Amino acid sequence: MSSSVAIEVHELTRHFPGGVRALDGVTFTVQEGEVFGYLGRNGAGKSTTVRILTTLLRPTSGTAAVLGHDVSTDPGAVRKVFGAALQDAALDELMTGREHLEMASRLAGLGKPRSVERAAELLESFGLNAAADRIAAGYSGGMRRRLDVAMAMVRRPEVLFLDEPTTGLDPQGRRAVWDLVRDLRDSGSTVFLTTQYLAEADELSGRVAVVHDGRIAAIGTSQELKDRMGTTTVRVRVAEADGARVRDAVAPNAVAPFADGWLEITVDGGEASVPAVVARLSAAGAQVERLSIHPPSLEDVFVSLTGSQIEASAGGGDDGKITAVRRGLGVPTGPGR
Amino acid sequence: MTPFAQLRLLLFRSLREGGRNPVLAYALPIIIPLAVLVLVAKTLYRVTDLPGFPTKNYAEWMTPAIIMLTAMTGVGYAATSLVIDIQSGFLDRLRLLDVRPPALLMSRVLFDVVRVIPAGAVLLVVGLLLGTNLNEGILGVVLLFALLVLWAAAYGGLYFVVALTTGNAQAPLALAPLFLPLQFLSTQFVPRSLLPGWVQAVAAWNPFTYMVDAARAMTTGPLTLAPVAKALGVAVAMLIVTQSLSLRAYKRASGGV
Question: What value does the mean pLDDT take over residues A75-81?
Answer without folding.
Answer: 89
